[in-house]
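Q: Given only this backbone (215 positions), what sequence would you predict?
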């Protein structure tokens, strides 16, 4: 989780730790996209108003326009994984945060997703993970989609993390888990099957939430 949080807070730490409400509201009027009021976001997420202020300042430092596009997201994300290729995983991660499916991430979308990942219930985290793996957003995870995500994670972590990794390891990993998840053997995994399988198998739960270590 450090990559996403870090990319928003690393410049914020260089600034003064406290600013009054007037300054925060003034900052929000000076960007192309003005986010919802902090009170509303506080009600919609698991963050306090003070935490939202810190996150917003970091977001604005990295994305002065108030929104982040995919290329910018990839560029920032790649800095945290210098030994691998993070572009593919960053693409899928970007799409999961981009709930409006319009090619950009607003501050509201970002903090809503981050709230789920950091402080959501197990059910909420698994639902978010399901949407990450459901690349084409048809409500199902195919074996091909799961393989794409797993391979992207391996590529991102790089040869220094997996020095002896063979090309078929991601496929073997997916085959084992997919067999357990696809309860009715119809070739796809539903949200219900995904959540149930992860809740029943602690090892699978940890593996499917690997994203928490690469966020």
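A: Predicted residues:
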């Amino acid at each position: 989780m450090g990559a996403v949080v870090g990319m928003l807070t690393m410049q914020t730490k260089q600034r003064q730790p406290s600013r009054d409400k007037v300054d925060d509201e003034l900052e929000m009027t000076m960007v192309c996209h003005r986010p919802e009021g902090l009170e509303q976001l506080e009600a919609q997420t698991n963050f306090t108003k003070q935490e939202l202020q810190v996150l917003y300042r970091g977001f604005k430092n990295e994305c002065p326009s108030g929104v982040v596009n995919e290329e910018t997201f990839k560029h920032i994300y790649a800095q945290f994984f210098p030994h691998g290729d993070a572009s593919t995983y960053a693409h899928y991660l970007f799409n999961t945060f981009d709930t409006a499916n319009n090619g950009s991430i607003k501050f509201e979308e970002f903090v809503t997703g981050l709230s789920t990942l950091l402080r959501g219930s197990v059910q909420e985290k698994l639902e978010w993970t399901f949407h990450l793996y459901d690349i084409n957003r048809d409500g199902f995870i195919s074996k091909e989609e799961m393989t794409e995500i797993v391979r992207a994670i391996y590529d991102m972590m790089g040869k220094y993390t997996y020095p002896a990794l063979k090309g078929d390891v991601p496929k073997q990993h997916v085959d084992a888990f997919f067999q357990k998840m696809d309860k009715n053997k119809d070739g796809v995994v539903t949200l219900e099957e995904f959540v149930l399988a992860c809740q029943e198998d602690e090892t699978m739960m940890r593996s499917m939430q690997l994203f928490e270590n690469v966020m």
